[in-house]
């Protein structure tokens, strides 16, 4: 096991699975973290556990939160419908109702705490600024700002053992992400990206996440590994 440790946010989706494979290929001992935050379905948590096993992480941790207590997002409030698109249609512009207020800020903060406990200096997140759904907490400016905060807010940072927030997918297209993951042996059939997957992890094929994922497989010239309803 490498002495070079990384904490990686693992949602169970295509992007985060690829990030775990990238970190492992770069020689990190990988510690993955998922969140049971009141999302619409638990199938993504089951997918995260499968991905963690397949990619051989050192430890996989699931943290319970109650973001559905605040609501404000179609992913945490059942009264807000998940937008659906016609087949092949691009997601609508602007910040969609699937944005979960402060989600990546909260998730990265908890990953930062675990990283400090583990003595890890690198935290990986699968945000993307090219093929993304309009979320403000996926932008490079957010990642850079969080890294600055992390090194001001922690004992390790103040003592000069600073943290790096790594977002290796930041400037990659979805097709490039798929191609990279395939090359690293990611089994995308184990992942769940859909905003409203059923209890068996089958995707709706109509939400923004499904549209972006399907387009990525098509552009990469790779058979779509997604299981659809």
From TrEMBL:
Cofactor info, note text: Binds 1 zinc ion per subunit.
Cofactor(s) the record lists: Zn(2+)
Coiled-coil zones: none
Pathway annotation from the record: Purine metabolism; 7-cyano-7-deazaguanine biosynthesis
Keyword field contains Heme: no
This protein's UniProt keywords: ATP-binding, Hydrolase, Ligase, Metal-binding, Nucleotide-binding, Queuosine biosynthesis, Zinc
Record's keyword annotation contains Ligase: yes
Gene3D superfamilies, sorted: HUPs
Catalytic activity reported: 7-carboxy-7-carbaguanine + NH4(+) + 2 ATP = 7-cyano-7-carbaguanine + 2 AMP + 2 diphosphate + 2 H(+)
Gene Ontology MF terms in the entry: ATP binding; hydrolase activity; ligase activity, forming carbon-nitrogen bonds; zinc ion binding
Chain residues that bind Zn(2+): 194, 204, 207, 210
Binding site for ATP: 10-20
Its EC number(s): 6.3.4.20
Domain of life of the native organism: Bacteria
Purpose of the protein: Catalyzes the ATP-dependent conversion of 7-carboxy-7-deazaguanine (CDG) to 7-cyano-7-deazaguanine (preQ(0)).
Family: Belongs to the QueC family.
Protein's name in the database: 7-cyano-7-deazaguanine synthase
Species for this entry: Pseudomonas marincola
């Amino acid at each position: 096991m490498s002495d070079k440790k990384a904490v990686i946010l693992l949602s169970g989706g295509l992007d985060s699975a690829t990030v775990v494979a990238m970190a492992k290929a770069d020689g990190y001992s990988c510690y993955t973290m998922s969140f049971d935050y009141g999302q619409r379905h638990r199938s993504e948590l089951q997918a995260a556990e499968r991905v963690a096993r397949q990619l051989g992480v050192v430890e996989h941790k699931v943290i319970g939160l109650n973001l559905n207590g605040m609501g404000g997002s179609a992913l945490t409030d059942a009264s807000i419908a998940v937008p659906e698109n016609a087949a092949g249609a691009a997601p609508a512009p602007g910040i969609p109702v699937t944005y979960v207020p402060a989600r990546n800020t909260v998730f990265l903060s908890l990953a930062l705490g675990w990283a400090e406990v583990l003595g890890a200096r690198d935290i990986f997140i699968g945000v993307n600024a090219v093929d993304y759904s309009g979320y403000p907490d996926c932008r490079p400016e957010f990642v850079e700002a969080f890294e600055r905060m992390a090194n001001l807010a922690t004992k390790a940072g103040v003592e000069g053992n600073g943290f790096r927030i790594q977002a290796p997918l930041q400037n990659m297209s979805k097709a490039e992400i798929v191609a990279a993951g395939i090359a690293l042996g990611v089994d995308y059939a184990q992942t769940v990206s859909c905003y409203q997957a059923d209890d068996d992890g089958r995707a709706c094929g109509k939400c923004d996440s499904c549209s972006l994922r399907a387009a990525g497989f098509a552009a990469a010239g790779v058979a779509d590994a997604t299981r659809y309803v």
